[in-house]
Amino acid sequence: MAKYFDVHPDNPQPRTIAQVAESIRSDALIAYPTDSCYALGCRLGSRDGIDRIRTIRRLDDRHHFTLVCQDFSQLGQFVRVDNDVFRAIKASTPGSYTFILPATKEVPRMLQHPKKKTVGVRIPDHLVTQALLTELGEPLLSSTLLLPDEDEPMTQGWEIKDRLDHVLDAVVDSGDCGTEPTTVIDFSGGEAEIVRRGAGDTSRFE
């Protein structure tokens, strides 16, 4: 049965955030809100968490996982960013974007695309997510909470707990955060390629 954490959207309770972070460190798989929609998250090096996300979402090994980062300096530890790409990403973060970039050696091999050696990264503009990342002190391995054969993610924490109680360890609820996933921009080839149009404005990348 998943633990249920009710977190204030504007003033996240430090004690509750610390409890969520501790559960992640203990290998928990959580559902949590972001600035685009709810996501599944686990510890960066959690093989069990990755396997469980793949099972819940029925993902193959070509799926790009995302490292949800607190800020740009943390992001820079996990991906290689040249000057032009740096400026484009810096101007778009924090925000509802996921960027696909070449992974550094800090990224576990199991998270990298098997052929391209890339990984997704993002910096969310969401108070609760930022509070959790600050407390955790490292990125959160993440994937949009979109169930197989469904067109839109679930928007309510209580609904997620009700439907996924048996496969999650915790649900962080801070209210409705929308149904539109991030815009995905692939910079791994040097030029911006729009992979998915979502919550983030794509005009600056076209």
Automatic annotation (TrEMBL):
InterPro entries xref list: DHBP_synth_RibB-like_a/b_dom, Sua5-like_dom, SUA5_domain
Domain YrdC-like as annotated: residue spans: 14-200
Annotated SUPFAM superfamilies: YrdC/RibB
MF-aspect GO terms: double-stranded RNA binding
Pfam families documented for this protein: Sua5_yciO_yrdC (PF01300)
Span of the signal peptide: none
Membrane-spanning ranges: none
PANTHER family noted in UniProt: DHBP SYNTHASE RIBB-LIKE ALPHA/BETA DOMAIN-CONTAINING PROTEIN, THREONYLCARBAMOYL-AMP SYNTHASE
NCBIfam families found in the cross-reference section: L-threonylcarbamoyladenylate synthase
Protein's name according to its UniProt entry: Threonylcarbamoyl-AMP synthase
Organism: Streptomyces guryensis
